[in-house]
Design a protein that fits this description.
CATH architecture: Alpha-Beta Complex
Distance between the termini: 38 Å
Radius of gyration: 17 Å
Strand content: 15-25%
CATH class: Alpha Beta
Number of domains: 1
CATH topology: Spore Coat Polysaccharide Biosynthesis Protein SpsA, Chain A
Order of helices and strands: EEEHEHEHEHEEHHEHH
Number of helices: 8
Structural class: alpha/beta
Largest sheet: 7 strands, mixed
Oligomer: single chain
CATH superfamily: Spore Coat Polysaccharide Biosynthesis Protein SpsA, Chain A
Shape: globular
């Protein structure tokens, strides 16, 4: 699919778990763990890493670049502006958003989502929110929509990137991806946002024995 890219964003200065993107998970930094799981996407286009221009993100950017992943550096708190910059730099019409605190996303589940999408359909945003387990999260949105709305965004909307598109009174065209029927229901969460989340992720990966496991295996292990 031309004009689409998968943008993984992270920064070092996380307030609740500083430097989490570089914390080890199965012997590699968590951001590398994530990128290795998602970089083989067939439908998500080029995988791009987006971080800030801050000096404390130099190590993070250098590590990802050494993996052969394209790196874009932009605004810090203005995450929407950072993604507008990514779209302009790489000629993207559509962006798949993946956040760096979701290390268990994978190419198979991403491609399952994108197979449901028709690029010719009028849509501003398609999301897994409320459908997939928390932490197995994807948002596909129109780069043109974000670029148009960016100057109108509040600071909170800029920081949270797609928040404005969920405001019902603005009547954006949004919908949800369906999840694979083989996935079992779960209340488990897979986002790494706190020290406790990180410790849980380490235990899960230890149980699964590596990086190459399916979401079905992840759900099975965490619900046992």
């Amino acid at each position: 699919m031309s004009g689409i890219g998968t943008v993984v964003s992270a920064r070092t200065a996380s307030t609740r778990l500083f430097g989490k993107a570089l914390l080890p998970l199965h012997g590699v930094p968590m951001i590398e763990f994530l990128l290795e799981r998602i970089r083989d996407t067939r439908l998500g286009g080029q995988v791009i890493f987006a971080t800030t221009r801050r000096a404390d993100d130099d190590t993070l950017a250098a590590h990802v670049a050494a993996l052969g992943i394209a790196v874009f550096r932009g605004a810090d708190a203005d995450v929407a502006g950072r993604h507008v910059g990514v779209a302009q730099a790489f000629g993207l019409d559509w962006i798949v958003r993946v956040t760096g605190d979701c290390p268990f996303v994978d190419a198979a589940s991403l491609d399952f989502c994108l197979a449901q999408w028709n690029a010719l359909e009028e849509t501003d945003l398609i999301s897994t929110k409320g459908v997939f387990p928390v932490g197995i999260d994807y948002e596909l949105f129109s780069a043109a929509t974000i670029a148009r709305e960016w100057p109108r965004m509040s600071e909170e909307e800029q920081e949270h990137l797609t928040l404005r598109l969920y405001r019902p009174e603005l009547e954006f065209m949004t919908r949800r991806f369906a999840k694979p029927p083989s996935w079992r229901p779960t209340e488990s969460k897979y986002v790494v946002d706190t020290p406790e989340d990180y410790e849980r992720a380490v235990r899960v990966v230890r149980k699964l024995g590596g990086r190459c496991f399916s979401i079905e295996d992840l759900l099975q292990v965490t619900d046992e």
